[in-house]
Each structure stands twice: as C-alpha cells, then as structure tokens.
Design brief:
alpha+beta, 6-stranded mixed beta sheet, disordered N terminus
Length: 108
C-alpha cells in the first residue's frame, strides 16, 4: 500500500485528499481578502487558520512553483487556496498569508 505522502505528487492529488476530509471550499483572493467560493464570505488574515501548507515545484520548470494552503475559517468553512510563488507570486496574496497570526498556523 502506498504511503500517504507518496500519494500526493501534485496539487490536485492533495486537493482531492483534503476534499474527502471535508475541506471542500475553494477560496480566492481579491482586494486583500480571501473569499469563500460558495458563501461569498470575506476573511482577513486573523479570521483564517492555516491547517497545512504544501509546496510544489513544476516538473518541467522548477521556477513554476506553488503553495497549497489548507484553511479553516472562524465561521467554520474549510477549504483550500492554491497560490503560485517564485516569479509568479501574487504579492498581495503572499502578504495576506504572512499576516496570518502565528498562533493561527499549525502544520499537522
């Protein structure tokens, strides 16, 4: 049987794995806030908790990098946010995640 960490070679594998665990909200970043796809609730950095983050490098281009954030909000929404980083970084989104209070970040 494959180990859990060997299973998720790509972002989409992790996203599917977390969706099965109830992290089924897609978040997008706009105007300094995270927006939940279905409810349209807006969240600031102090209103989200980072449950886990996974970093990836592109297979064909190592500068094609991304981070998958697994999130829970203070309103109980659970989901994921995929952000490019490196040359493709959305600086505002990167600043948002830097502003998430340290006590709201666990990597279990």
């Amino acid at each position: 049987m494959m180990e859990e960490h060997e299973y998720a070679k790509h972002e989409k594998d992790y996203i599917k794995k977390y969706q099965k665990q109830g992290y089924d909200v897609n978040f997008r970043f706009e105007n300094g806030k995270l927006i939940a796809s279905k409810s349209k609730n807006l969240y600031g950095p102090s209103e989200v908790r980072i449950v886990a983050e996974h970093r990836y490098e592109g297979m064909s281009n190592p500068s094609d990098m991304s981070i998958l954030y697994v999130l829970e909000t203070e309103k109980g929404e659970k989901g994921t946010f995929l952000m490019g980083y490196g040359p493709n970084t959305n600086m505002d989104a990167a600043e948002f995640f830097k502003a998430v209070p340290e006590e709201n970040s666990s990597n279990r």
